[in-house]
Design brief:
Blueprint: H1 2-33, E1 39-42, E2 47-53, E3 57-62, E4 67-72, E5 76-80, H2 91-94
Antiparallel strand pairs: 1-2, 1-5, 2-3, 3-4
């Protein structure tokens, strides 16, 4: 009986905990590597360019009228670097 619970815990660890740790690590490294002038998409669907980066928040410039929005870094969904033009984290990886 104890062996069955050990196997179940091992399977749960491999199927749930390991992928989640990997996703969190990738998201954290994405936030650490962002820089000014990167294009981002927020979790709310706002698309814009980073103007300023502080400790826990960023200033985002959006739209043709150049409206500026102050938001937390944790509200970022994807970052598109000007160098690579690739999204760092996609919505498929978030699931």
């Amino acid at each position: 009986m104890l062996i069955v619970f050990g196997i179940m815990f091992g399977m749960m660890y491999l199927l749930i905990i390991v992928p989640d740790k990997k996703r969190r690590k990738k998201y954290s490294s994405m936030l650490d590597t962002m820089k000014v002038n990167d294009k981002i998409t927020t979790k709310g669907g706002i698309v814009g360019k980073i103007i300023n980066i502080k400790d826990d928040y960023i200033i985002l410039e959006t739209g043709p009228d150049r409206a500026r929005v102050k938001m937390l870094k944790t509200g970022i969904l994807t970052i598109e670097n000007n160098d690579t033009s690739e999204a760092a984290v996609t919505s498929e990886e978030k699931k």
